[in-house]
């Protein structure tokens, strides 16, 4: 259900703001595992923290440098 909500949010956001990106920061290990198993992390990059996600946005990078 959460993946569906994230996808709907991303679709609407991209329609209104084409350059916008959606990232996930600080997800629990269980959520991160589920996202990786379903490959949703390819659409919503995972970051350890909000500051890490902000650094990626500033640097123009979609993929996090390091993951746990």
What do these coordinates show?
- The chain is mainly α and 68 residues long.
- 50% of the residues lie in helices and 6% in strands.
- The chain has helices at 2-16, 29-37, 50-59, and strands at residues 24-25, 46-47.
Task: Describe the structure using short key phrases.
68 residues; mainly alpha; 50% helix; flat
Secondary structure layout:
Blueprint lengths: L1 H15 L7 E2 L3 H9 L8 E2 L2 H10 L9
Parallel strand pairs: 1-2
The low-pLDDT segments are none
N- to C-terminal distance:
25 Å
Order of neighbouring strands in the sheet with most strands = 1-2
**β-sheet strand percentage:** 5-15%
Radius of gyration, Cα only, in angstroms?
A: 12 Å
Structure class: mainly alpha
Task: Give a quick rundown of the structure.
This protein has helices spanning 2-16, 29-37, 50-59; strands at 24-25, 46-47. The protein is mostly helical.
